[in-house]
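To: structure subgroup
Subject: Chain for Friday's discussion

All,

I'm putting the inputs and outputs inline so they're searchable in the archive.
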Amino acid sequence: MDHTPTTPHSDKIVFILDCDNTVLDNDGVKSDMDAALKQLLGVERAIRFWEVYEDVREQEGIVDLPKTFELFGAELNDAALLAQVRSTIMDFPFARRLFPDTLPTIAYLHTVGEPVIVSDGDTVYQPRKIEQSGLADAVRGQWVVYAHKEHDLDEVMRRWPADIYVMVVDKARILADCKRLEPGKFVTVHIMQGHYAKETYTPGPDVTYHDIGDVRELDLTNLRQYLA
């Protein structure tokens, strides 16, 4: 398929890419980790690990692996085994779970604007994931992690000044929040990957694509039609 840039255009465009289930198959990562934990811990204790993980996420509002390890370790009461659990999670080969079109799409976006990664999560695990997967290099070091990116749009726009921002995310909720907050700046693109894909929020996304590779089909000459 021809992915010739749909330019020229005079607007500076920053493409804000989410990480989990947008450019990296995080559902697949968790499935792989679960299989490894079941081998290491047995089924019941692996189930308990994910229960603690979900409890922490509900309490903190984000995935917090350091806190999960702390609480699960107190129950496990085996420092050596906990170290193996931590290694299973933190040293996972994330690059193998990049979606096939992720790196070619980021390379294309460099030719028509500036791709950056703005992810959500804790400040230990999420940066490790971005760096070890090769995503940090792919976006030439232009990435940041917030607890909730939609609460930090002003800082994102200060960090990467642009005329138009194309927010590419798998979660319709985040896209709806961005559109309400900055309707004159943000074009919202919903990627239908991962377990949040079928959720709907108002306002709906400007554009919906099946996967990250489809972003190369976005008509960049007509982005202003989506702005308030």
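Points worth raising on Friday:
The first helix runs from residue 26 to 41.
The two ends are 32 Å apart (CA to CA).

D.
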